[in-house]
Amino acid sequence: MKKMIDLLTQEMEAAFAAAGYDACLGRVTLSNRPDLCEYQCNGAMAGAKQYKKAPIMIANDVAACLRDSKVFQEVNAVAPGFLNLKVTESFLTDYLKGMEAEPKYGLEMPGHPKKIIIDYGGANVAKPLHVGHIRSAVIGESIKRICRYAGHEVIGDVHLGDWGLQMGLVITGLRERNPELVYFDESYEGEYPKEAPFTISELEEIYPAASAKSKTDPEYKAQAMEATFKLQSGVRGYRALWKHILNVSVADLKKNYGSLNVEFDLWKGESDVHDRIPGMVEYMKDGGYAHESEGALVVDVKEDTDTKEIPPCMILKSDGAALYNTTDLATIMERMELYAPDEMIYVVDKRQDLYFDQVFRCARKTKLVKPETGLKFVGFGTMNGKDGKPFKTREGGVMRLENLIRETKEEMYRKIREGRDMPEKEAAAVAETVAVSALKYGDLSNQASKDYIFDIERFTSFEGDTGPYILYTIVRIKSILGKYTEQGGKVEEAGLKEAENLSEKALMLQLTQFNAMMQTASEEIAPHKVCAYIYDLANAFNHFYHETKILAEENVDRKAGLIALLVLTRDVLETCIDVLGFSAPERM
User: Fold this and answer.
1) What would the pLDDT profile of 5-33 be if each residue is shown by its tens digit?
2) How far, in Å, CA of 448 to CA of 138, rounded?
3) Domains of the chain: which residue ranges?
């Protein structure tokens, strides 16, 4: 289905051509003065020089050709040469009926859908998620959902940090606590226990203690490095213990990510590509891509056109050890072999910009990807406290993500119980749903690359540009539809009618922008555009609601038309919050 703006442009182009001017001058845009008109066209201004004519004369000629238009109700030529436009109610209503009848409300599906892998989450095994993980999870999940809605095949990968020294530290910490565990007996040949010899709480105590000790005790660090080597060399007991660590951690991660409605298709980690690294290194050497520099193996990625210094991409350290670069490149190699994606999107802290520039350049130079494979870095800013610094606990430490979620739920529960007569159990369930909207919308309504202030009081407010405000609007619509049904009305039989007041028309016009917005949000990888749209849509609905009798309307046909408009508004809002990764309760 064509976008509304394209149909209006088509009508205007025909008018320019009919008046004897270049049809390309007929581009229509949304009005930046909605108090004067709904749309505008500035083509007469652009054509003045080409036709050596005053812009107002061109505008008048075009307006005259649109006197009998079935699309435009008003076409006003305004000095010095603007064309101010208003669409007819019949054209607007027909367009919305077309949206209703189309899958995805008229969003055009791509002729060649892409296969996209999104790398987001980036959690580390044996460490609890903290507030720094929220942005990657929330932004990545919404990008995945938006791209899927836009018709692409999308695979989300958590890309776990499950290999390297941190694993050696955990194993060494476990050995210090429980040296008698069978996993440390290298002569043992039997089956290892199926149950892990630790809980997630114990695991989360062990890593920070072991990490801190390794910084002051060289011998302890050497033990951890030896444990890492044994794990990566395939020592049975260490591998079995590592699998326990992985299973216990992943179960906890799934629970925490699940509380934010964040899901991954793949739970792969750095360990998955460990065995690919030797072959990749040989390939890079044999192809003449990699060379030694001060004992390390590197690939030069600087281009002659670069205006800033781009360091080489290091593949192996001087001691032969792999780095993050190595595992990321091996992961790209594996993804190309197993999934052959058209595009890979990495949702990571924007401070990693140079790192990913190096990795992407290296992947291209070494031909790990096809020339046409897209490699995109979506760098996000930090979530800060009211002091403008990275968000901390009251004690000054890094806050665990589950504590942030819990505090937001508690604040939401307090507000719901305070102002509403609702059973405790229902209030708790509603608070959980609304708290997720507060956290996610609070994050996603900001452009990803920008830092933002986490303000729990503002994010949980039922007023203003917040998740709870959007949900409250949806719940208000659901309540009206429920009462209409109680009055004996049949929601499914209601059909759209032409607008009879300005606020009703404004709401209808806002709805027509859905498919264009969703296409842009997908193409630009921009969840904040969905947030901006639904905030405007919610405002348009609430303005309409306060100015229009709906349930008290006596004309049955008129009431049914209003109900149909509510249904479409609800459905579009719920579609939008679904791609953002949250949902609305039945009442609040």
Assistant:
1) 999 999 999 999 999 999 999 999 999 89
2) 10
3) 4-87, 165-258, 272-380
